[in-house]
Specification:
The complex is a heterodimer of chains A (479) and B (502). Chain A has 15 helices and 17 strands. With 479 residues, chain A is α+β, with helices and mostly antiparallel strands. Chain A folds into 3 domains: 291 residues, no CATH class; 112 residues, no CATH class; 58 residues, Orthogonal Bundle (Arc Repressor Mutant, subunit A), CATH 1.10.10.410. In chain A, helix 2 runs antiparallel to helix 3, helix 7 crosses helix 8 and helix 12 crosses helix 14. Helix content of chain B is 36%, strand content 12%. In chain B, helix 4 links the parallel strand 2 and strand 3. The chains are: A alpha+beta (479), B alpha/beta (502). Chains A and B meet through loops of A and helix 9 of B.
Chain lengths: 479, 502
């Protein structure tokens, strides 16, 4: 019996505004506790919320980027519950009428295929504060710096079918809001981008959704993937043993790599949502929406289409190169510097560049080799100065900060030997030193050609032009 | 017992016939003398008041003062006042010193008024008799055995007894108009959104509106000019220009139309009160106004509608009083949940708890549609009734309250009886309209209020009608008998504000 996982994500993206969504307090991260909480954030008697127009602009920008319907009229509602880090005893959110409805996001799966994930809605809301349970000797501390920080909660349809797809969606959304749109700083460690996952399983081939569990507050792509994998296994095991999945909220424990029940449906709050009487309905004019549309950058799907047509790249390369704006820009600059051959640039970027970035834990913007540097290196391959193999060594030297391609080639004497005489001399020496192998080769053991190439390359320090070498060697060996 | 109008005192100050220090000292002395019997004040701030009076005198001496500079004044204790205890008449906030000034407090201070203290009220403005105050009931200056109405009862008693010429109030369901009626003074609740709610402790956000209790419509006009206007800190405040209300007071009523809804003259209306109101309508006729009947068919829904909408909003608005950041925190709690429960149980009085529970219930899953949503629909119908009526009339008039002042304790056992007190005033809040109450005579020796209702942002016309009526009558000049002076030994004077936590 096979099971199909059904997954939907609720992503909380902190909007990159300077001040909070309903107050003038700063949103900067890392300030001393409660130094960035004004009377509005503290929920003092008599204070009132005033909506930050920038938060609305960023939400509209998101809505347009995912081709959603931006509501001309949306309503803020109060979500009522008691918690010490929720100063007013309610969170101002949007409930029945969100600012963004519908929309889609295209993701690239590992095999390069693309999948469209539907977005249900996105709404504006305020974040709560933080309870600190350590270092207060049995008491709890409350830091309200984060209270009132603007969030865009982006809810997907249950379109995701595996932990990997969910992670790909979370990554794509992360890149969209942080790199493409710049509406969120995308900092996962600081909680600027976090995710709740709704996970259920059903028998393959059936349509009815199973009972779901909601895994709260996942703040890394890896944790999301691990948590969902665990949760799928847990639910499948439960169902195969004849049990039932209960609707509940669960927490993922990265240390134990498992999810644990937090509260059941019965224990869930009745949030008593109702329209916030302190805020008028949010009205957004068609003119405003159009003015925001004018600020949209090239979006991931548009960029992908262009990369495929303009550079003739295969889907897998396009997927890797358009995940982020920075990488895409880097690639395009390198293509320009290399003077063409986009496919070979793509190979270098998705191969060597990404590998070393990964190894060193660097972002593309921190790459020690610039796109122009890579372009210069590739030009030296194209003009026959060095071979592709030598180029890899040059690249590593460039990465290590030893200089530019030409400088390294000169300093290390890596210029390719194209002088026929010099190559012939090296071949002659190798033939003379290996009479046995020469006899075998001439006796029909063609495979030994590789051995001779290796020997000559070794003798020339790898600098012999591979094409010339092959040609001359074959001629010489043929006698 | 001498009472002087705000306009008169302001004139005397500007002509330097009297100093602000003299007036403020007199007000403080009067409070010290009368308040033990009336309990109109929760906090008196003599030091700040005298300092402000001296500053006002200095400005007046330099010829710099504004229209209201130096006039003593009081704020309902629902407005946050920086550095001064702001209790909302609740044990929950008995230790709360506000760190900022409400918009109304700021604006009136900027206009030059000298605040002498904070007046008593129903706890969190929830009540119609001032008996729900943690600081004890306010007594009606006309008969200290009776209620001055609520929730702005302290302001009403303070003005009626001449402690201060005027005071702020707030009106969520009649809390300015009904105490004005029961205390024989003038009360004006402006259009919803006319005056900023910033710094006014919320009861029911969609209904709350700040206004004034004064001796005359002219005084109300002077104050509203200073108080009203857009405030970017209150998203529900209206960006509508504020007219010079004082300039239109003198307009003739000839040819104007007053609509009288039969729904206001129901079986619950005391016969004598009804008679006084009809007499007042005859006065308007004599001034050239035409009286016609208008119907407000859904008005009967206003009390049940209000007692869903207001508690619903209150249940959420009062959630912030959780004992965590300010206000009362129970010392007996062993867990977080217990801290919430005990702090709120101990900090809120019975009426506040009743409304929080009602509001929580009507918003709960499974009940929301039947109660809250239905009430919103009813509210639309009530507002629509008024809109239709104002298509044909300039003003709507009727009684403010079904009866004159009732005895303290008379209605406390039956919340519904208490709620029905506001039957004529609540619809105005649900529709967001401006309303006023002016004295129109006496029933069995107690003042009767005439309610005047205007269309949205029609304060100028409303005040014009009220002022013209007061030019033709003298009910607003009738003063209550001096209350029995209670010796300092037998009743505690209001606490002086030292800024220290009790």
């Amino acid at each position: 019996m096979t099971w199909e996982p059904v997954i939907g994500l609720e992503i909380h993206a902190q909007l990159a505004t300077k001040s909070k969504i309903f107050s003038g307090a700063a949103t900067a991260y890392g300030a001393a506790p409660n130094t960035q909480a004004c009377l509005v954030d503290l929920g003092y008697p008599g204070v009132l919320p005033v909506l930050n127009a920038e938060a609305v602009r960023l939400a509209v920008k998101f809505g347009l980027a995912v081709a959603a319907k931006v509501a001309h009229r949306s309503v803020f509602a109060r979500k009522n519950y008691f918690y010490p880090d929720l100063p007013k005893g309610y969170q101002i959110s949007q409930y029945e009428l969100p600012v963004v409805a519908g929309g889609t996001l295209e993701i690239t799966l590992e095999d390069g295929t693309r999948k469209v994930v539907r977005i249900t809605r996105a709404h504006l809301e305020e974040d709560a504060g933080k309870s600190l349970h350590e270092s207060f000797h049995g008491l709890s501390g409350i830091d309200l710096n984060r209270a009132g920080t603007p969030l865009l909660e982006i809810v997907s349809e249950p379109d995701l079918r595996s932990a990997k797809e969910a992670a790909a969606y979370m990554r794509a959304m992360h890149q969209l809001v942080s790199e493409y749109l710049g509406i969120c700083d995308g900092n996962l460690q600081e909680g600027s981008f976090r995710c709740d996952a709704n996970v259920s399983v059903r028998r393959a081939g059936t349509d009815k959704l199973g009972t779901r569990a909601e895994i709260k507050n996942l703040n890394s792509f890896r944790f999301l993937e691990r948590a969902i994998l665990f949760e799928i296994d847990r639910q499948v095991e439960l169902l195969e043993d004849g049990g039932k999945v209960v609707q509940e909220t669960r927490l993922y424990d990265p240390d134990k790599d498992e999810t644990r029940s937090m509260r059941s449906k019965e224990e869930a709050n009745d949030y008593r949502y109702f329209p916030d009487p302190d805020l008028l309905p949010l009205e957004i004019s068609a003119e405003f929406i159009e003015s925001v549309r004018g600020t949209l950058p090239e979006l991931p799907a548009q960029k992908a289409a262009r990369f495929a047509s303009q550079y003739g790249l295969p889907a897998a390369d396009v997927g890797l190169l358009t995940q982020g704006v920075a990488a895409a820009d880097w690639f395009e600059q390198a293509v320009a510097a290399a003077g063409g051959d986009a496919k070979s640039v793509a190979n270098w970027v998705t191969g060597n560049v990404f590998a070393l970035l990964n190894r060193d834990g660097k972002a593309i913007g921190e790459s020690p080799v610039t796109p122009d540097g890579l372009g210069a290196l590739l030009r030296r391959i194209a003009d026959g100065t060095i071979s592709g193999k030598i180029a890899k060594d040059v690249f590593e030297a460039m990465w290590a900060g030893e200089g530019g391609a030409d400088e390294i080639i000169a300093k290390k004497g890596l210029r390719q030997i194209t002088d026929t005489g010099a190559i012939e001399a090296a071949i002659d020496a190798v033939i003379a030193a290996n009479p046995g192998q020469v006899a075998e080769y001439r006796g029909g053991k063609d495979k030994l050609l590789g051995f001779f190439v290796g020997q000559v390359m070794k003798a020339t320090g790898g600098k012999a032009n591979p094409g010339q070498l092959n040609e001359l060697l074959k001629k010489k060996l043929a006698g | 017992m001498e009472r002087q109008t705000l306009a008169g005192l302001a004139r005397d100050l500007r002509s330097r016939a009297v100093s602000s220090r003299e007036l403020t000292t007199a007000a403080l002395e009067r409070i010290a003398r009368l308040d033990p019997a009336l309990n109109a004040f929760i906090t008196v701030t003599p030091e700040q008041a005298l300092a402000a009076a001296d500053a006002a005198d200095a400005r007046l001496a330099r010829g710099e003062g504004g229209l209201l500079t130096g006039v003593p004044f009081a704020h309902k204790d629902i407005f946050c006042t920086r550095g001064v205890l702001t209790t909302c008449a609740s044990k929950m906030l008995a230790n709360f010193v506000a760190p900022y000034d409400a918009a109304v407090v700021e604006r009136l201070a900027a206009a030059g008024l000298v605040t002498v203290g904070k007046t008593n009220m129903d706890e969190f403005a929830m009540g119609s008799s001032n008996e729900t105050s943690f600081y004890g009931a306010v007594k009606n200056p006309w008969d200290v055995a009776r209620s001055p109405g609520g929730s702005s009862g302290g302001s009403a008693a303070a003005v009626a007894s001449g402690m201060v010429p005027a005071a702020t109030g707030t009106d969520t369901g009649g809390s300015i108009r009904q105490p004005a009626a029961l205390a024989g003074i003038t009360g004006v609740k402006p259009t919803y959104g006319r005056v900023s709610r910033y710094g006014m402790i919320a009861f029911a956000s969609s209904l709350d509106q700040a206004g004034v209790l004064t001796l005359t419509a002219e005084d109300a006009a002077l104050l509203l000019e200073a108080m009203a206007g857009f405030d970017p800190r209150d998203s529900t405040s209206a960006d509508v220009p504020v007219p010079r209300y004082t300039e239109s007071l003198g307009g003739s009523l000839r040819g104007k139309t007053i609509g009288v809804p039969p729904e206001f003259f129901d079986a619950g209306l005391d016969a004598e009160c009804g008679a006084r109101v009809r007499e007042a309508l005859a006065v308007f006729e004599s001034l050239g106004a035409k009286i016609v009947e208008v119907s407000l068919p859904h008005l009967a829904l206003s009390v049940p509608t209000y007692y869903i909408v207001a508690p619903a909003e209150a249940s959420s608005n009062l959630a912030r009083f959780d004992g965590v950041r300010f206000g009362h925190r129970s010392t007996a709690a062993g867990s977080l949940e217990e801290m919430y429960k005990r702090s709120r149980q101990e900090g809120f009085g019975a009426e506040v708890r009743r409304r929080i529970m009602t509001g929580t219930y009507v918003l709960s899953a499974g009940y929301y549609d039947a109660y809250y949503l239905k009430a919103q629909q009813a509210r639309q119908l009530i507002a629509e009734d008024f809109r239709k009526a104002f298509a044909t009339v300039d003003l709507i008039a009727g009684p403010t309250s079904p009866t004159a002042a009732f005895r303290l304790g008379e209605k406390t056992a039956d919340p519904v009886q208490m709620y029905l007190n506001d039957i004529y005033t609540i619809g105005v809040n649900l529709a967001g309209l401006p309303g006023a109450s002016v004295p129109c005579g006496f029933a069995a020796g107690l003042p009767v209020g005439l309610q005047l209702i205007g269309p949205a942002f029609g304060e100028a016309a409303l005040l014009n009608f009220a002022h013209q009526y007061q030019q033709a009558t003298d009910w607003h000049t009738r003063t209550p008998p001096p209350p029995p002076v209670v010796g300092a030994a037998s009743a505690a004077p209001p606490r002086q504000d030292t800024g220290a936590r009790p």
